[in-house]
Amino acid sequence: RDFYKILGVSRGASIKDIKKAYRKLALQLHPDRNPDDPRAQEKFQDLGAAYEVRPGAGNVLSDEEKRKQYDAYGEEGLKDGHQSSHGDIFSHFFGDFGFMFGGNPRQQDRNIPRGSDIIVDLEVTLEEVYSGNFVEVVRNKPVARQAPGKRKCNCRQEMRTTQLGPGRFQMTQEVVCDECPNVKLVNEERTLEVEIEPGVRDGMEYPFIGEGEPHVDGEPGDLRFRIKVLKHPVFERRGDDLYTNVTISLVEALTGFEMDIAHLDGHKVRPRVLCKGEGLPNFDNNNIKGSLIITFDVEFPKEQLTPEQREG
Amino acid sequence: MWSGRRLFPLLLLALLPGLCHGREPVPGAVTCGSVLKLLNTRHSVRLHSHEVKYGSGSGQQSVTGVEASDDANSYWRIRGKSDSSCQRGTPVKCGQAIRLTHVNTGKNLHTHHFPSPLSNNQEVSAFGDDGEGDDLDFWIVQCSGTYWEREDAVRFKHVGTEVFLSITGEQYGHPIRGQREVHGMPAANHHNYWKAMEGVFIKPSLDPAKHDEL
């Protein structure tokens, strides 16, 4: 199998491009989303093998060692083979219980108790907002595992009426429980990937379903990463536009000057007052960019100009 | 003639050594920006806070130890001394001063010269607003080695009053029955060891703009 073709990336693609490609294709090719395609499962598994996430073991195209082996020897050359369990791979990017297609949060049966959500603030730089990035995170959480014996569950208060004598009744409150299989909470770890998409705005959230706090009698809550865009020393963000300030001397202002400023990913910009297309990518359509607005401050000399300076 | 020209800084993107090969330099270290629960190893309870104020002492929000391992109110966020001093994903060094911010209430782990209600040690509270408190919010991570490793038990020594974050076992009654008192004590002993448990641990980040590593 040509792993590069399956992911749709070139042989020289960076890890970031590979992760981005996986994430996009995983959403498109998931069997739940393609119920009419008989080959959907196979395509999805191929995608998983190409990306290959195993806790602790590393990925094929996104692990440098394995990639070198694959490039040299092909799939057979990979040392200890691989098990592609798409459950593992998928939850690496989206959390447990998969991802509910249709865009709505999962249809919750209101009777199922749910653990708390955890909200983690994720600080991102303006450089990351411009170019995007992936953040790897290790989630260590308690998971309910089967244990021997039984336990009391779904405990609730109920009113009991007892008859004390003819015509005399007493109402008491009683705690009533069901019997359930015993569970114990065991700590487990897995790696998650949060994608910082270009153009992302302050306050936007990336949820991982089921990665929040567990609930012994019900479902776990969710883990949500909330984006916090940090202030930048050079550029100020307003929507998709960037503002910055350039200081020039009086001489430059009078005689003209040539200067380049470095943008967030290092590329150079020749400053004019308004540079269209040099702002931040729009979150909904990365091809549309805002503008870079530059204000020029002219620094006037503090003392009298010497005759030489006047000549210059 | 070029007076006043400001040289534009080349935007240097932080890149930790060895990252281009997909392996972090310190795989098991606690990093800034991570959110975690801390277990006191002697008493097996987790550092916890909630919207319950002390009835004595400073009257600030109380900090306790709880037995449950699945309480979302036991999550603390690791931050540097100032917002710029410890970037997301930077491993915390032994001897470094940090702040621990309670995730659900936004208050920082804090101690000051007030007596604790049950044992008469030093009261430990949760103080501040939205992560901003004052100079009594800093704690030094004491450990052997270079970085605070997740598997290691470490001590937290307060900057300012020099006490260690501790639990000695005293329990509260109603309305927080069974929760243990958390206080500061001057002696370093087996009551002040803490270990990172459940949480969301951020790995050092890959450099976004310039990667042609393969």
Structural key phrases:
heterodimer, A: 312 residues, alpha+beta, Helix Hairpins, HSP40/DNAj peptide-binding domain, 3 domains, 3-stranded mixed sheet, 11 strands, B: 214 residues, mainly beta, Trefoil (Acidic Fibroblast Growth Factor, subunit A), 6-stranded antiparallel β-barrel, disordered N terminus, disordered C terminus
Task: Compose a concise summary of this entry.
Chain A has helices spanning 3-7, 15-29, 40-51, 64-73, 86-94, 126-131, 250-255, 307-311, and strands at residues 118-124, 133-165, 168-196, 205-208, 223-229, 236-238, 241-249, 261-262, 268-269, 274-281, 289-299. Chain A is α+β, with helices and mostly antiparallel strands. In chain A, the strands form four sheets. A four-stranded mixed beta sheet of chain A has the order 6-7-11-10. A three-stranded mixed beta sheet of chain A has the order 1-5-4. Chain A has a two-stranded antiparallel ribbon with strand order 2-3.
What does this structure look like?
The complex is a heterodimer of chains A (312) and B (214). Chain A has 312 residues and is of the alpha+beta class. Chain A is 22% helix and 37% strand. Chain A has three domains: 3-95, Helix Hairpins; 118-229, HSP40/DNAj peptide-binding domain (Sandwich), CATH 2.60.260; 235-299, HSP40/DNAj peptide-binding domain (Sandwich), CATH 2.60.260. The longest helix of chain A is centred in the N-terminal third of the chain and has 15 residues, at 15-29. Residues 53-58 and 98-107 of chain A have low confidence and may be disordered. Chain B is mainly β and 214 residues long. Chain B has strands at 35-40, 45-53, 61-66, 76-79, 97-102, 108-115, 122-127, 139-142, 153-158, 164-166, 180-181, 183-185, 194-202. Chain B is globular. The chains are: A alpha+beta (312), B mainly beta (214). Chains A and B meet through strand 1, helix 6, strand 2, strand 3 and strand 7 of A and strand 13 of B.
Shape of chain A: flat
Radius of gyration of chain A, whole Å? 29 Å
* CATH topology tier name of the largest domain in chain A: HSP40/DNAj peptide-binding domain
Strand content of chain B: 25-35%
Order of helices and strands of chain A: HHHHHEHEEEEEEHEEEEH
Number of helices of chain A: 8
Mean pLDDT of chain B: 85
